[in-house]
UniProtKB/TrEMBL annotation:
The chain crosses the membrane at residues 36-54, 66-86, 117-137. It is a multi-pass membrane protein. It comes from Chryseobacterium formosus. InterPro entries: RDD (IPR010432). This is RDD family protein. It is found in: Membrane. Residues 18-150 form the RDD domain. Its main location: membrane. Keywords: Membrane, Transmembrane, Transmembrane helix. It holds the Pfam family RDD.
């Protein structure tokens, strides 16, 4: 398996294992089985249970095609909708423990998933040969949709998990200080904590200062430096996030 180094805004590299081509193919096949099961169930319900097939008899070909498009639309939108709702995963990806992420380390947005979905039309051309070739020759096993959207598919195995590193022990009577932290995502907090711990380990005050300033800028916070140091501030932000999201280990 190859690794992908995601460079954060503090110029700290975090290494992830890229999902293998085999894992992505298996995930694709699982999702394919789900799609087939949906189509079989939908057409059986339409033609056999509800007996609505007669409606097509008096329609022209355009109207008939429109009905078929409506019935099969969920299959077409399957990857776009589920990746958006499941933060970069589909049921197939979830089973295989892989996920779509941005190369810059942040959670992919709906726009990114949309670009991947549009390019899927090209990637699946010739029974997926184009997408397969793209994954083989690209540095991070990226298909054309990944390259266009600036995303990659990573493995969540081997203890490399998006939410794993955000856990922080907090007491049951803990009182949070900054409710604004709910505006952050799990991936934001993972990056913050990873960078913070690395900076503490080598006593990199410059990174700590940049990280502190970045958090204050994003959350629009003003903190009195005489009452709370930068290190204390970042530590409180991490604990507050765990408190509000219920991610207490």
């Amino acid at each position: 398996m190859s690794q992908i180094a995601i460079n954060t805004s503090q110029n700290v590299n975090i290494n992830f294992i890229t999902a293998s081509i085999g894992e992505r193919i298996v995930a694709y096949l699982i999702d394919g089985l789900i799609k087939v099961a949906y189509l079989v169930a939908t057409f059986y319900l339409f033609f056999n249970i509800l007996n609505l097939g007669y409606l097509l008899d008096g329609m022209d070909s355009w109207s008939q095609n429109a009905i078929y498009i409506v019935l099969t639309l969920p299959v077409s939108l399957y990857p776009l909708v589920l990746e958006s709702l499941m933060e970069g995963q589909t049921p197939g990806k979830k089973v295989m423990k892989i996920r779509v992420v941005k190369i810059d380390g942040y959670q992919a947005s709906f726009g990114d998933y949309l670009i991947r979905w549009v390019f899927r039309l090209i990637d699946t051309t010739f029974v997926g040969i184009i997408g397969l070739i793209s994954m083989i020759v690209s540095k991070n096993n990226q298909r054309l949709g990944d390259i266009a959207s600036g995303t990659a598919v990573i493995s969540l195995k081997n203890n490399i998990n998006i939410s794993h590193t955000i856990l922080e022990n907090i007491n049951h009577d803990y009182i949070p200080t900054f409710p604004q932290v709910i505006g952050l995502s799990d991936n934001d907090m993972r990056i913050i904590k990873d960078n913070y711990l690395k900076a503490l380990k080598i006593d990199d005050r410059q990174v700590i200062t940049k990280l502190s300033d970045k958090i204050k800028s994003i959350l629009k916070l003003e903190v009195d430096p005489t009452r709370m140091t930068e290190r204390q501030f970042i530590g409180v932000v991490i604990k507050d996030y765990n408190y509000y999201t219920g991610k207490d280990s």
